[in-house]
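User: Sequence recovery, please. Input:
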């Protein structure tokens, strides 16, 4: 059985990713590693810290010790820590937002990136620009924070969160050719955005689709014939 470890920095990403894995990789066993202090520490510092990066490495090393087939990083705020971890462990690691960034760069040259916390916005913008460079695409990025949305979500007011984010998306859509939702927690809004004039991309589906492609490309382990 395929085993996937998913490293989360809070509980809000667990269910959306679980639903996508259930749909796209239904036979997989999923191990969720959740530490909600990671995002809190990043937000308090205003950026990814060496201490948080060290803990990400520790969690992914533990996942490797559990002999999982692949690891999914579920949080864009700590995504840059994964770049160094990939050099330290042999288990393949997929970042939830890489496929989304690549898709955005393939769609348009003016990309809007929207987030509810600054510590996710900035690394997502850097990721989009990095992918554009790799694809040799010239892009312009417009950044937007949906002020107050994340606090509303933490307080349990999901409706207020959605209202703030949808308003920010509507305003940004008038300025760009494609919009990237920087956080997994925002993905649930996509079905409500059919009237938006530009494509709006979220990471759970494209990220899990990339996870499935990576699994499909892993070397197959042959099972010895016991009858020989």
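Assistant: Recovered sequence (228 residues):
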């Amino acid at each position: 059985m395929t085993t996937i470890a998913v490293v989360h920095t809070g509980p809000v990403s667990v269910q959306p990713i679980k639903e996508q894995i259930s749909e796209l990789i239904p036979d997989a066993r999923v191990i969720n590693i959740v530490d909600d202090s990671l995002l809190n520490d990043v937000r308090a510092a205003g950026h990814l810290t060496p201490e948080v990066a060290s803990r990400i490495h520790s969690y992914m090393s533990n996942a490797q010790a559990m002999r999982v087939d692949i690891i999914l990083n579920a949080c864009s705020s700590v995504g840059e820590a994964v770049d160094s971890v990939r050099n330290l462990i042999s288990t393949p690691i997929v970042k939830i937002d890489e496929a989304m960034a690549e898709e955005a760069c393939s769609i348009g040259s003016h990309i809007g990136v929207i987030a509810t916390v600054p510590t996710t916005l900035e690394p997502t913008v850097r990721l989009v620009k990095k992918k554009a460079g790799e694809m040799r695409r010239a892009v312009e990025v417009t950044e937007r924070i949906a002020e107050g949305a994340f606090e509303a979500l933490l307080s349990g007011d999901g409706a207020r969160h959605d209202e703030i984010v949808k308003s920010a998306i509507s305003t940004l859509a008038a300025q760009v050719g494609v919009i990237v939702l920087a956080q997994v927690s925002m993905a649930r809004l996509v079905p409500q955005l059919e009237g938006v004039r530009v494509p709006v991309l979220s990471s759970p589906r494209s990220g899990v689709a990339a996870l499935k492609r990576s699994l499909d490309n892993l070397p197959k382990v042959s099972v010895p014939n016991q009858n020989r």
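Residues 118-134 form the longest helix (17 residues).
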